[in-house]
Every structure is written in C-alpha cells, then in structure tokens.
Amino acid sequence: EGRVEVYHDGKWGTICDDQWDDRDAEVVCRQLGLSGTPRALSWAHYGQGSGPILLDEVQCSGNELSLDQCKKSDWGQQNCDHIEDAGVSCDPFTGTDVQLCQSDAVKGTVRLAGGRSPSEGRVEVYYNGDWGTVCDDGWTDLSAQVVCRQL
C-alpha cells in the first residue's frame, strides 16, 4: 500500500486522484504483481509527493494489465495539487477473504495450529498482542488460498 508513483520520461511523479477508483487500484495491484482486495485512496492518504504530477483523469475498466492501457490524460496534463495524490492498498486482508471473530481486518502473522503437519491445521492470527482463531462463516477455498499464500 502507498502513494502511487509512475516513471515517465526519466522522472518519477504522482497521479492525481480525479476519477481515481477501485478499478484503477485493481490495475495498479495487478501491474505490481500483488493480490488482494484493491482499494483506491484519495486526498494524499499516504502523504503528498514531490516533483511532477504526471497523470490525471485515470479511468481504467479494471481489466487492463497496466496503467498505460487505461484511459487517462496526456502525460503531464493535469489540474491538480499534491494534496490530491492517489494511493492504493492491495492488502489481501482488507476484504472479506478472512473473517475474524474479534476483528474485521487481519493485519499480522498467520499460523496453522493442531495439524498433523506444518501445512495443515486450524487457522490462527496474531492481532493486538494475542493469537485468535478465524470464524468459518463465509469461509471458502479462496479464503484458504489467501492464508496459504501468506504462509
């Protein structure tokens, strides 16, 4: 997660958050090779950048492989200030893939406990100083894949 910056014509710059949404975030996460629930963040959520603002009015469909393929303003054509720098979170645990009994967000260490081998067992997460279990409500193969990927 962080402020999105792009490299163009020999320099790094930011992206203005005009039209910035989760479909744009999905493309950024894909381009970076990150899985998870993509989320677009606006208003310099991760801090203001410096240097040029290189893109504005980015409008991805969500299926593109990179931002280059998205509809957008011409490079350097913008009407923004760095207070509008776009950000993205690709955190696999910001969505509903894993649902905790005590918390709606899993941030931290995951382990498997009570299994016959290190690759199986009850899913436990370390959160706020304690180990806890994960509720099975809504638990799917996709949820298990997220845990396996983290391990």
UniProtKB/TrEMBL annotation:
Disulfide bonds join 16-80, 29-90, 60-70. Signal peptide: none annotated. One of its GO terms (cellular component) is membrane. Keywords: Disulfide bond, Glycoprotein, Repeat, Signal. Residues 1-91, 110-151 form the SRCR domain. PANTHER family: SRCR DOMAIN-CONTAINING PROTEIN (PTHR48071:SF28). This is NETR protein. It comes from Pycnonotus jocosus.
